[in-house]
Amino acid sequence: MSIKQCAILNLLLVISLFSLPPPAQGGQMAILRILLNQEDKGELIVYVTEDGDYLIRTDDLRKMGFIELRGARTTIEGEEYLSLRSMEGVRTEFDEKKLVLGIYAEPHLLEKKVVMMRYPRPVKVYYPKDTSGFLNYNLTYFAGDSFKYDRTVLTNQLGFRMGDFLLLSDSSYSQRKGEGGRFVRLMSNITYDRREDLLRAVFGDFFASSGDLGSTLNMGGISLSKNYRIDPYFVKFPEISFSGLISLPSEIEIYRDGFLIRRERVSPGGIELRDIPTYIGSGLIEIVLKDPFGREQRVRLPYYYSDRLLKKGLHEFSYNLGFEREDFGVVSNRYKNFSFLGFHRYGLSNTLTVGMRGEAMKDVVNMGVSATYLIPKQFGVIDASLAWSGSKGREDGLGGSIGYLYQDRRLSFNLLLKAFTRDYSNISLEKTTERIKYEVSAGGGYTSEWLGSFSINVAITKKYQGTDSKSLFTGYSRKITDRSNIFANFKRDFEGNLNEFMIGVNYYFDHGIMASASHQRTDGTSSERIQVIKNLPMGEGFGGRASYERVHGKDEDYNNFNLQLQYNAKYGQYGGEFISTNHVESYSLTASGALTFVKDSLNITRPIQDSFALVKVGDLKGVGVNLSNQEIGRTGRNGKVLIPNLNSYYDNQISINDKDVPMEYTLSEVTKYVSPPLRSGSYIEFGVTKIQGFVGLLKVKVEEKILPVEYIEFKLLVDGKEIIIPTGKGGEFYFENIKPGRYKGEFKYLDKHFIFDIMIPKSDEVVVELGEVLCE
Questions:
Q1: Do residues 339 and 216 lie in contact, with contact meaning Cβ atoms separated by under 8 Å?
Q2: 151: closest CA among 139, 161, 163?
Q3: How confident is the model at residue 347 (pLDDT cuts 50, 70, 90)?
Q4: How many CB atoms lie within 10 A of CB 116?
Q5: What's the total number of domains in the chain?
Q6: Angle at Cα 725 formed by Cα 721 and Cα 727, nearest 5°?
Q7: How distant is the alpha carbon of residue 325 from its chain centre?
Q8: Which domain holds residue 43?
Q9: Residues 170, 186: contact at Cβ < 8 Å?
Q10: Least confident of 45-49, 553-557, 597-601
């Protein structure tokens, strides 16, 4: 816009300010540019009263960000206006030359902006609940000098999901040469997840724990728990937050331990930064505020982050009732001893989490309390537990533990002490004669960018019955280059009078290849080991491991060689292993895979470790399908490809390579975010439409004359909907993507109403010629 045009515009606005007819309440109406605390809010209608007050619509004030609208109100032409002069904490400045009204409001009058510091989930996430199933199998054949008989082992896992329910069952079948086979059922259960409440119920076999100082059992029965892993994005641990007031539009920068992690533009008003991501241990968050005039304000927030604490008000629990399982992996169905195990923890505050636990079985009861406390001034975390036990044939027992942990970027320190009376018991201890009197462990570590990382740990165990132990462990590691590091450790067993020392180096190549070399010495026996590892790709490809070890000492001298190869194929996973130890050789061959079904489609693929998805891209063959930007496979003749490795509950990014899609097809989207439930199969369809055009000539027969119908619109009824199609010169028309069939059309021309049929043929042509469509 030129200077002359600006001058004319300003003149017109001045005229509008002083020459418009006054409203009934007195004053003039004007269109002014509004600056709220130096932030441009655009042009608004403002009434300027005779005594210099400014009236603005209450709706406009709310849109600007005001949350408190207290003051004198008036109605003008049916709309509510508020006097700025009457608002406490608000002042105004008017620039007549620029026609700008500056409003200055105290920050507490403006809305608060909440910034979630953890990056949000994608806006459009698909949560499938398809009925699906899979059958994993693994067939391994063992043979060689180290086996008395050749052996074949077949393991399998059956999974079936319907809605929120999941059935899982594992089993194993083994057979030795010359012997009969043996079948063993392993774990079988039904799992119900209520995703919105993060609750999980398990009916069948499961592992249960009653927490610190308690037992862990393999049980058959019922389990109910609060499981935060159902939502991996939910933060259950207390994280640091910041809130304040900002009077001017500002730029805010957030630094964690000196590194910039986020930058935001914020409007005047309240600001709250929630769940600033931190590392476990002690650190420093620094908030830097920069206003439009270049002034800076810095706020330092020291923190200590612990994954042992719960946020204030959060519960974590597990209640388990059932029968203890015996001889797991040997016998299919042997249960006895009705038992209960459970714990419940509660975030009393962000610095204190309390809990209680208990377990009971015939002839033994154990219960206790626990607390986790964050020491003020970021001095670390204390964990404490106390338990009582009663057992048939024993006195009442007491047990307790107290632990301390401190960690920052460079230094860490931990201390743990457990002590028990002679008769302290729980379900697990009832099966053993050993009784611990006390356990003490202490350790620390230091990390330096130049010196590397050092660690040391001492552990002492004293028992009423059994063998005492006392050991010392030290470790060191340092990065040499971006691709390599060295490591060394030393272990001293004081009770056995044994020393063990190891030193080694790792080097990381491209394509997931790592090589290592190490030397180890244990009381007169030395060994050197070289190893190369190639990680398996997510899609098809090879992986494996090769290692060579030479062992030599006073009484022995031999070599170890190990070679393992594995291949991810489209329909399975195949591998083999060869081991040679001191001229004793053995080998194994493995074939594994899965049979899956979802959406009435059966597929053979690699083993299903978690969840899977069947992706369909129309009927197009050869379209690349990616998981997290890494190609997993290409669609077959039916436009489908199976992804066998989705992560349940996470937002898996599935995309297709649109360059593989022919030009005559259009895509509704190329990327989807899929969050499947546990061990489930999902059907993911990408909408593909073939662009097929139809051209023809619309003509009418009037008094024995055939005339083109030019420059009109006719209606075509398709599946109950009217499509408007224009005609051009000579009656030419064009439309797209209508399936084959006969359709009714109509139009008005020369004051007459015409109805006609149009036939769409089945064709693979991109553009189909319909010829003349004659209407009589």
A1: no
A2: 139
A3: very high
A4: 11
A5: 5
A6: 160
A7: 34
A8: 3-109
A9: yes
A10: 553-557
Judge whether 220 lies within some domain.
no
Is 316 domain-assigned?
no
Q: Is the pLDDT of residue 260 over 60?
A: yes
Pairing mode, strands 125-126 and 671-674: parallel
Final residue belonging to a domain, choices 664, 689, 714: 689
Question: pLDDT category, 585, cuts 50, 70, 90?
Answer: confident
Q: Is the pLDDT of residue 242 over 70?
A: yes
Residue 359 resides in a domain: no
Query: Which range has the top average pLDDT, 90-104, 117-131, 281-295, 334-348?
Result: 334-348
| Assigned token pair, 656 | 């297709």
Residue 319 forms part of a structural domain: no
Closest among 216, 222, 156, 215 to 189, alpha carbons compared = 222
Q: Are residues 489 and 518 in the same domain?
A: no
For residue 762, give the CATH number of its domain. Answer: 2.60.40.10
Report how far Cα 703 is from the mean position of its chain's Cα atoms. 73
Over residues 212-225, the mean pLDDT reads 95
Q: Are 369 and 354 in contact (CB under 8 A)?
A: yes
- Section 201-221 average pLDDT: 95
Which band of pLDDT confidence, cut at 50, 70 and 90, is reported for residue 609?
very high
CA 480 to the chain's CA centroid: 33
Query: 441-444: which pairs have CB atoms within 8 A and are 24 or more residues apart?
Result: 441/414, 441/415, 441/416, 442/414, 442/415, 442/416, 443/413, 443/414, 444/411, 444/412, 444/413, 444/414
**Cα Rg, the chain, nearest whole Å:** 37
Q: How far is the C-alpha of 694 from the C-alpha of 717, rounded, in Å?
A: 15
8 and 35 fall within a common domain: yes
Quick one: average pLDDT of 40-59? 91
Regarding whether 158 and 90 lie in a shared domain, the answer is no
* CB atoms near residue 576 (< 10 Å): 17
Closest CA to 543 of 522, 519, 518, 513: 513
Q: Quick one: how far is CA 731 from the chain centroid?
A: 57
**529 and 671 fall within a common domain:** yes
149: pLDDT confidence band, cut at 50, 70 and 90?
low
pLDDT at 148: 60
Residues 607 and 739 in one domain: no
Neighbours of 645 (CB within 10 A): 19
Strands 112-116 and 269-276, by their bridges, are parallel
- The pLDDT-based confidence of 22 (bands split at 50, 70, 90) is very low
Of 305, 331, 351, which closes a domain? 305
Matching residue, tokens 């508020």: 82
CATH number of the domain enclosing 85: 3.10.20
* 685 and 697 co-located in one domain: no
* Alpha carbons 676 and 632: distance in angstroms, whole number: 18
Q: Which of 44-53, 605-614, 686-695 has the highest mean pLDDT?
A: 605-614
| Cα 112 from Cα 122, distance rounded (Å) | 24
pLDDT of residue 219: 95
Using CA atoms, how far apart are residues 111 and 407, in angstroms rounded to an integer?
Answer: 38
Pair 454, 555 in one domain: no
Helix and strand tally (H, E) in the chain? Answer: 2, 57
Query: C-alpha 64: how far from its chain's center?
Result: 36
**Same-domain status, 599 and 738:** no
Tokens of 449: 């960018």
Token pair listed for 538? 């997510």
pLDDT value at 676 more than 90: yes
CA–CA dist 151, 362 (Å, integer): 41
